[in-house]
Each structure stands twice: as C-alpha cells, then as structure tokens.
Amino acid sequence: MSLQLGSIAPDFTQESTQGPIHFHEWAGKDWVILFSHPKDFTPVCTTELGTVAKLKPEFDKRHVKPIALSVDDADSHKRWTADIEETQDTKLNYPILADKDRKVANLYGMIHPQANDTLTVRSVFVIDPNKKIRATFTYPASTGRNFVEILRLIDSLQLTDSHSVATPANWKDGDEVVILPSIQDPEVLKTKFPKGFRAVKPYLRLTPQPNK
Predict the structure, then answer these.
(1) Is pLDDT at 81 greater than 70 in this prediction?
(2) Which of 8, 105, 113, 132 is the most buried (most CB within 10 A)?
(3) C-alpha dihedral over 13, 16, 18, 20, to 10 degrees?
(4) For the whole model, what pTM was predicted?
(5) In Å, how far are 17, 88, 112, 123, 191 from 35, measured between CA atoms?
C-alpha cells in the first residue's frame, strides 16, 4: 500500500554517514524531512545536499531534522561528502542514509519502475513530531528541488496546526491568511482573530497572520 498523508512514517534501522539510524528514535519530538537521491556522485544531488546544509539553521529554527537517502553504501557517501563540501563551500551537517539494500526506498515507495527500476526518484516526505506524514512530493531525477519552498510548506503546516487558518496561494510567513470557513460564530471570530478580518466573499475571509 502506498503511503498517504496522515500515514505513520514507517520505522526502520539503517546505516548512515553518522552511524546507525533508528528512525523514530532519531526523529524524537522534532519534524523531519526525508529526501532521496538517485545515486552518489551525481551533479544535481551534490547541489541539493549542499543547499540543505546551508539552510540547516533555518530548519533548526523550525525544529526540523533533515535526513537524506541514496542507494549507495556509507563509505561511498563519505567519499561523496568531501566533494559536496568542496564544491558547495559548506559542511555536511546532517546524515545521509546508506540504503544499498533498498530497504528504506521500498518502505517509502521511492523507486518508480517506469522511471528507473533500480534508482530512487527525488522523493520528499515531511513528517511531524507524531511521526505522521504531512506532505509528500516527487521530482524527476533531472530536476533539483526548491528547499526554500519546503521551508515555506513547513511554516504553513506549523502555523495551521496551531491556529484555525489556512494559507492562500503563494503565501509566505508574515502574509495574510485565510480563516477556516467552519468558524462562523462572531464571538469566536473576535476571540481568535482580535486583529479583525476582511471578507472578500462569505467563504473567503483574510486576516493578519495570528502569531505575528
């Protein structure tokens, strides 16, 4: 069965560049982004891993742990790490899973046989502190991912978990948000949204971001 939003992220134990990872234990009470790479020593992956290393302080601020995966072994990953650090001018500051036996790739459906029957596609799983999968997406091997967009997505998930709002198209942290249509009681609206709101339509009400 394919993993869906709301599914519990499968647990596993696998080697990595930082030693064995017992996934649920390693994740602890933090959010996680688990993202896969087709193989080691590939150009697009090298830029992606360097980008995430540079963005690590932003992930840390949001209590998010990045963890990468490639279907080569840990020794290969460590040799590749030297290239990543040299070419991307950064230190690799999070683990890369060594998934040579495809155990994690198969658990998470990261191999798409009609694209390539041995290599993982560029999958991303956003996992919350309850180990639930909150967002997924998949890029082809030829296209690098936008990790600033992943941060934006996490900002939205964390905001909407704590307030009765949704985020509109192209929303960024600090922009107006949408009040959930289920909230209709005027007193509840005053309590939850003391800054007020503007009703573009009865079902489209915009309010300043509540936690700003």
Answers:
(1) yes
(2) 105
(3) 20
(4) 0.92
(5) 15, 18, 15, 5, 40
